[in-house]
What does this fold into?
Amino acid sequence: MNAIEGSCWPLDRMSAQRRDAAFLGALREAASTRFLLLVGDRFAIVSNEARDFARLRLLSRAQLRGFALDARDALFLGCNPQSGTGLFALALKEHEVDEPLAGLLQPLVDLRSIAARGAMPADEVAAASTAKSLAAWHQTVRCCGRCGAATRSEEGGWKRTCRACGQPAFPRLDPVAIMLVHDGERCVLAREPRFPERMYSTIAGFIEPGEDLEQAVRRETREEIGLDVARVTYLATQPWPFPHSFMIGCLAEAVAAPLALDPLEIDDARWFARSEVALMLRGDHPEGLWLPGRHAIAHTLVRHWAESRD
Amino acid sequence: MNAIEGSCWPLDRMSAQRRDAAFLGALREAASTRFLLLVGDRFAIVSNEARDFARLRLLSRAQLRGFALDARDALFLGCNPQSGTGLFALALKEHEVDEPLAGLLQPLVDLRSIAARGAMPADEVAAASTAKSLAAWHQTVRCCGRCGAATRSEEGGWKRTCRACGQPAFPRLDPVAIMLVHDGERCVLAREPRFPERMYSTIAGFIEPGEDLEQAVRRETREEIGLDVARVTYLATQPWPFPHSFMIGCLAEAVAAPLALDPLEIDDARWFARSEVALMLRGDHPEGLWLPGRHAIAHTLVRHWAESRD
It folds into this structure.
């Protein structure tokens, strides 16, 4: 690989420059510009054997040309304000990666694993998250929702416009309420059907048109586990690019009562004492029950509650 | 109008029943079921002369039939859990409303005016907000974004599915960061080009893929008014169906500095002392400057700050 002339980290999104086609065109061809590669839903990374070090694998325009890769639809992620080095993401399908390129792009790792391992700098995880969200959205707006004609990517991938009727479309983010339901002394953790064995987590659901965060938390908690929520306290947010969610994390204080589970959404849910949650956080639970890792806002919510007195 | 047998307020969204086509079909035909009407982007309401009383105008299935209105694509808003009375929204285009129907549907009022006047019960404003958000979304997904074929409405309007490839689409909500930028003693209020004369408000912007709330607040504040934000404090959320935004309201503490305005987004922005903001809230500003009304989260943010000491 070529030496990297200037680092693109930290990255400024430079959203005002997205509409400047001449700027973006020149930046895309610049020798210092770098491209991260998303193949299907996995990223090309550089990692050591112990896997306690991971960086995004960044390619130059010359390298892309060597593999006859078309960078015109690369997604503009931003520039480093000091060095001016630009960063784009190139999203490829598995079948577009031939043998020699596949060799260069080893290993390919999915973002959930990258985030769970915690070995990649936060700036790079955020850039990968942006790229994954944007790339997933592009797949769902190849045609115009109004007239059905083909759309084209514009503004470095931050807009698509219908070639026939001109209707614009912008990247989608789905707000989700995610809440740790508790009664002060105990909290409710649940298993969705798709979870790995013995993992429990907080409940969550998409916020709907016409409701605010508190109303969504109350509705979802009643629907999924049958409890009425008294007080809702906001804690934090997190982008979650699976495929393009925006998680809004809360504590939801409920009146203790038997749980009534929605069988479609919830496999199992239980009240857990604070001491039992502490064992899960330490990985010492006697039944081997465990929680999502530090990369997930569910972990932040559970840890915040477990380490506080209400 | 027919007498209303049972009120639909308060409304339970009954989201688990949306997939039950037999339930929805029977409810749609029930004599007690009511329909609110959205014509273009205005709602049929009942109001008194003083306009300090406003309710949604609700029609029965029999009334719809009398005007040969097709209720198959009516949007399911929920039921009252006690009476079982169902509520749907019917979205019509202006040209679909003939003379006799237009007479019945007087007055037609846009939701911004309804909300600003503050004369309609909160339950009904929320139902109208849900209907407006959903109806706007349906207009943008008439065709499949993946293959371009026609889609059909399902689950009472909470899903659309491609008739050709089966790709599903779900209602869209765009998370927006809206922030009162302040330095403790003064706050920044701004005018966007589309604002009514002499109105100032907080700044706001769409949250982007890959960033959390704090990052979005910092980026938008830097882009729109050129200030760096230190501390971000969450305050409240609000659905805002113009067309389908989800506002997340914050206080953003910035270091006082000259403002650098984005000329595309901001017409004017100024630092305002707390005492001057108090005059604006009372409607007594010497230059006639004013703020959005109590229905808007911008008002909540400004009032919260103006009435607190930091």
